[in-house]
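Give me structure tokens for this 308-residue protein.
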Amino acid sequence: MIERPVIERPGLRRTRRSDGWTPYAFLAPFVLLFAVFTAAPSLATFALAWWEWDPLGGRTWAGTANFERLVADPRFWTATVNTLAIAALATVAQVSVGAVLAHAARGATSRAGTALGVSLLVPYVTSGAAVAILVAQLVDRDYGALTRALAALGVDDVDVLAHPAGAWTVVAAMVAWRWFGFTTLLMMAALRSAPRDLFRAAELDGAGSWAQFRFLSLPLLGPVIAFSFLTSVVGALQLFTEPLMADPTGITCGPARQCQTLALLVYEVGFRDYQFGYAAAVAAAVFVLTAALVAGFFAGFRRLGWTT
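Here you go.
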């Protein structure tokens, strides 16, 4: 039998070739906005870090002077320690709470799971500035509810924000409270997509809740934990609103600068002292620090098998 050749119409061939550009057309708006509002400002920041620019004066070439000043500036190292401490506390808290809540809600009914998911979104949609102002009033040295409660217990002259550990804990608690709901929802979705027979078999073998959490939930949540950890660290390194609103008198929480983050240092140097070149150098250092931490954590999670 002689097979007849398949003749493709020219119009159909042109249509198939034109379909190859369709995904790029949908991606074009995002790529354009990313290039204009993210990539271009980032490159401009790195370029500005090599200049000494006072908007009220002129701009002169500084070379490595801004980075040399950065290394010798105690404010930068204090802000780095504060930022890393707050990032560590907030990230560990929200990931831990999210994993425990997701495991506890694994066996909830559909209606109860929906109600829990909606309630977890309340902190996410709440204004960060409003939460920070409320917490600042609670820990106020003279009129705060927490201070009065401690005074009723016989503990007088309590100023939580006056000590680095207290300031870190307050700011980290605000960050963790705002974002733990989003992390919990991701983990709940991951556990619900897992086969239920795994947990039923573990129950039949006599595994308790802790054993199921350790040997089943944690391995299943590995990729979600890695994703949440990395995004939380990146967000915490850019923390601005919570530490700014925690101290109503300034941007440092006191002379020791116990809650000033790197983002607040950029704000102070750039928009209060009008030293845009040095502020750009601090911003460039934040980018390098973030990239190094993400690369290190990603390598660690990859060894654990939590990333692809």
